[in-house]
Amino acid sequence: MRSADWVFLPYFLAVARAGNLRAGAELLNENYGTVNRNIQALETSYGAQLFHRSRRGFELTTAGQALVPLAEQAEATVISARKRVEGLDRSETGIVRFSLAAAFAYDIIAPIIGKFHKAYPEIQVELRLTSQIESIADNKTDVSLRAAFEVTDDVVARKLYPIAMGIYASELYIEEHFADAGPKGAGLNWIGFPKHWAVTKWVEQSPFPLAELRHIVSDFPMRLSLLRQHCGMSHLPVIFERYCSDICRVPGTEVTLDRTLWILLHTDLRRTVRVRRFVDFLADELLKLQKDMQAGAESTKLYA
Each residue of 267-285: b (16+ CB within 10 Å) or e? Predict the structure, then answer.
């Protein structure tokens, strides 16, 4: 493999995975003309056509199919090398890429990031809010805050605590609708759960299985806004009682423990100082928050 091939291979892999030039360019955040030129250069280097080009897209040739696993192996080697070198970093400077769900971002994590910035001003946290589980092993992020029952990824996983959940609505919604509700919640509304989500099992097992599922939205801040607009009720982490005085737990409902909160980081970065500082700081602040919630509301059993 010639040295220039290392430059061209990411373009080849992006189009092979995406199936067309424009989508491949989007994966790389590059101009599609640049992607096309680099693929052509790779084909010239190998003396073989790697894609059949048509209006339907880019289809791998036999040569292209043979190259894919070799290119992926080269990609994995480069990523591993990068992580190992980064793992030798002993300085409290640089970037830490951090992904998390929007549900935790604004009220819970943002103040923690503010404290971290004051403590370590030379460490830059690059935040990515996503409902998708981003791969740490594939170099999509350095650190991730994830709610899950278990973690099977090949990563370093720091287990925090189960997330306490409750059923919430605005006081006005409770006053205006609950008195006239039928058995098992008939006439009431649930907010915000796409039907394919496992969370719908909570609806079936709740005191209100006959409440109608309405205003479907996966975005947590939007779901919270709909609660404040008196549109219905929803499952929320109990910790939001601390931040949302305009909503309250539905009377007669119990707190349940759901998925566990985990901090995940790449194995090769566990000794990198900036990553270690961030992970330790994040874990300490989240554990302090848990203790504060326990001390402030023992009778509600907010957390196990």
Answer: ebbeebebbbbbbebbbeb
CA 140 from chain centre, in angstroms, equals: 11
Question: Domain limits at 165?
Answer: 90-304
pTM metric for this prediction: 0.65
- In single-letter form, the type of residue at position 2 comes to R
Question: Do 39 and 95 reside in the same domain of the chain?
Answer: no
Last residue of a domain, one of 70, 86, 102: 86
Domain shared by 277 and 214, yes or no: yes
Q: Which two tokens stand for residue 297?
A: 């509301």
pLDDT at 294 over 60: yes
**Calpha distance 81→87 (Å, rounded):** 10
Choose among 127, 203, 124: nearest CA to 165.
203
Query: Which residues make Cβ contacts (< 8 Å) with residue 56, sequence separation at least 6?
Result: none
Comparing CA positions, the residue from 166, 218, 171 lying closest to residue 192 is 218
Q: How far apart are CA 162 and CA 302, in angstroms?
A: 10
What pLDDT is attached to residue 132? Answer: 66
Q: Which residue has the tokens 């990553």?
A: 275
Mean pLDDT within 273-289 = 93
How far apart CA 63 and CA 251 sit, in angstroms, is 65
CATH number of the domain encompassing residue 116: 3.40.190.290
User: What is the mean pLDDT of the segment spanning 32-46?
Assistant: 91
φ/ψ of residue 293, rounded to 5 = -65, -40
Are 293 and 242 in contact, with CB atoms under 8 Å apart? yes
